[in-house]
Design goal:
Layout: H1 2-10, H2 52-64, E1 83-84, E2 90-92, E3 95-97, H3 104-114, H4 123-130, E4 134-135, H5 139-148, H6 151-156, E5 179-185, E6 197-203, E7 209-214, H7 220-235, E8 240-243, H8 252-261, E9 264-267, H9 277-297, H10 305-313, H11 324-329, H12 349-379, E10 392-396, E11 405-406, E12 416-426, E13 430-434, E14 445-447, E15 451-453, E16 467-468, E17 478-489, E18 494-503, E19 510-514, H13 515-521
Parallel strand pairs: 3-4, 5-8, 8-9
Antiparallel strand pairs: 1-2, 2-3, 5-6, 6-7, 10-12, 10-15, 11-16, 12-13, 13-14, 17-18, 18-19
GO molecular function: nucleic acid binding
GO biological process, one term: DNA integration
Organism: Tagetes erecta (African marigold)
Amino acid sequence: MRQRRWLELIKDYDCEIHYHPGKANVVADALSRKEKHEPIRVKACQLIITPGVMEEIRRAQVEALKEDQIKAERMVGKGIELTENAYGVKTIYGKIWVPRFGEIRKGILDEAHKSRYSIHPGGTKMYQDLKKDYWWPGMKRDIEAYVSKCLTCLQVKAEHQKPYGKIQPLEIPEWKWEHITMDFITKLPRTPKGYDTIWVVVDRLTKSAHFLPIKEAISSEKLAEVFIKEIVTKHGMPVSIVSDRDTRFTSKFWKKFHEEMGARLHISSAYHPQTDGQSKRTIQPLEDMLRACVLEFGGSWDTHLTLAEFSYNNSYHASIKMPPYEMLYGRRCRTSICWGEIGQRELGSLEIVEATTEKLERIKECMKAAKDRQKSYADRRRKDIMFQVGDRVMLKVSPWKGILRFRKRGKLSPRYIGPFKIIARVGDVAYRLDLPEELSGIHPTFHVSHLGKCLADESMAVPYDDLEIDERLNYVEQPVAILDEKEKRLRNKTVKQVKVQWRHRRGSDLTWELESEMRKNYPALFS
């Protein structure tokens, strides 16, 4: 019909046909080309692929239905419900019956869990996928047990449950400045006096604190001198000190110094800052006050540190229901807003003793109430668990917190490593692990919140050759290469900078650094 319409259209015209060479026909189409290809010959055929697993299942079913095996298969009385499909495989409820005999079940579970097409699904997803085609007694329970023993899943799966370990509050001290905590605020802007760190020392009873400016590179010997000058001379030698695992607190000199002075050191387990929660909580308002002072009054932070200490100690504290200074000295310190305090109040010696004793008892009651309240709040979000000596556990290694990092995998490194054997229980919520030689630089005692159950086969292990960690379970940032260089012009001089590619760096992997600092710290990059 289309050609007829064309003929009807052109019959009124005188047409002359001219030959147009193919090489000159730029807009050639299929109709203007001569067919040069031979027709393709197709042979009709039918290909039937029979999976080898069907034959294996059929043979296993024959053995499983024997009289000496059928009881172990838990199929007594169900034989009459079995039917055969086109492959001669017995089915039940429209699904293939997978016997216990042989390794058929394990092969199906491995394929449904570890292959490239499944990639370690959870127990529920795996069961929903398999139950469409297969059936055996206790199938769901077997799948959950299989997934719980998968070492890869234990390493990489995120937790969706409450963290392990109930809160274990420290005992309430009996007297002022006998039991203290301490910690550092590091990486602060360097002041004209060379300070870049604050040493925070807090009394656990009165909540009073001292904020001491120091240099981050200070040695343990110098730290002991500052401790005697600023703490011991004002409050006496403490009975116990709670701190984290900073290298200055774990040094032999620091331990020997306090041993001779009669003070006990209570150092936290590996990467568990909650042990020294008192210092951590004190640091938060201190940093806020210093930010406000620098923003509003200007100058370096160390010029405001003494008044920040005064403001903190003279302000109301929720745990003791009064300012720390009032608990320490019997009354609040006068400030520029105390216009109504005119004259002096005289108290006899007996009244002072009674008032101090009464206030101390009231403070202990307030602290106990606050401690119980905080424990109840925290325990709502925690789960109690207990391991036994000899159990095998996995060690948590968070991607950005705490941190074990791996050389090649970066952000995709495992969440857990192990398994490790528990060799001792330390307190109520900490355990000592038997770590391999590759991890000998790490303190082997860990809080229970960093451990996970391990039900995997004992023969399975994880290589530790490419671990890059320090003694505090922190990842080690390493420069990989120098990619570029430039000169940056400052007001009075010009400095050379290099563009560095980092491995295991938090944030950007590419940064501009001073060439002099990089040559000093990483000379191998320039060789």
